[in-house]
Amino acid sequence: MRVAVVHDWLYVIGGAEQVLREILQCYPSADVFTLFDLLKPEDRKKLGFEKSHTSFLQKMPMLGKHHRKYLPLMPLAIEQFDLSGYDLVISSSCAVARGVLTGPDQLHVSYVHSPMRYAWDLQHVYLKESGYDAGLKSLIARTILHRMRMWDVRTAHGPDAIFTNSQFVARRVKKIYGRDARVIYPPVSLSNRDAILPVSDHFLAASRLVPYKRIEPIIRAFNMMPDLKLVVAGDGPEAERLKKLAGPNVTFMGFVSDKHLRDLMATARAFVFAAEEDFGIIPVEAQSEGAPVLALGRGGVRESVLGAGPHATGMFFDAPDPQSIADCVRSFVASEHGISRLDCRQRAALFSAERFRRQFVSAVNEELAQFQANGQGRALSRLIA
Question: Of 53, 133, 182, 325, which one has the greatest count of Cβ atoms within 10 A?
Fold first, then answer.
């Protein structure tokens, strides 16, 4: 029995790579396939493999900073992998990995982090932020994304089963592909503290400083509340512009280590999050450190944060604008002691890596059993055993 795990690309370790790591924990002998792999050897070791199989894109120039420019070639590249020798194929996909070619005697399960949002509901945001919203470049980009959507729908029935990281993404999968998906929440690195730390006087926002993370409206909200302190952790192309518009009650930490970030979370009055994410790992990390979460009430965060009830772990605001955020923060301040930091930690515990591995293996085994019951597969009974 042979297992292949297909991942879109590897150049940083983010949320999708944490999922990859846990999948490889479940199937440690699996071979890894990816469009290109720019990781350092020590980072590959952290993920659980030493060598990956890459596509012809691996030899293309300037991959690290400009890999999205190769988007038109990615469907072709992913289809060139020869996976015919594998019994089980697992794709981990937010772009094209789901489109690998498999045969009728191979089981293909796909963990879809999200359909390609820049090709679907976020196309207009992507074009604007990339500077492709007008002119000839816009026409070319729109044509490419149109063809990507056609390919994306055409390959939607390639996997035998689709898993997703939230009910929010499952609804998108149903809307775009017309397929049902099983939700398996992603693994989160939870706090290893034995005790809850004393709370400081700051609120915290943390992410890469890029437009779609919506740090700007959070800063503008705190400009309206000079009596409250905001700490912003993270760096990115928006950093200098955001610093210029921030008031004296806003402190920028720049890039911080994971340990430092966790300390900031553990002592924050609350974590403020204005992005619309498919799941949103960092709000769960903040809860695991005991911090309540004040978040935009859209996307996967609605499934990880409890905004009401006796064990609420945060609050939601309706729009990613300064006034809505400020109103939410003020409401939180007025009832801050009604949210238990212990409840926050217990809520986050539901999203552990151990829980992910258990649910993932169970779901795959169910698909394997059904696959075999239908008379398919070559060596699948050995995997189930």
Answer: 325
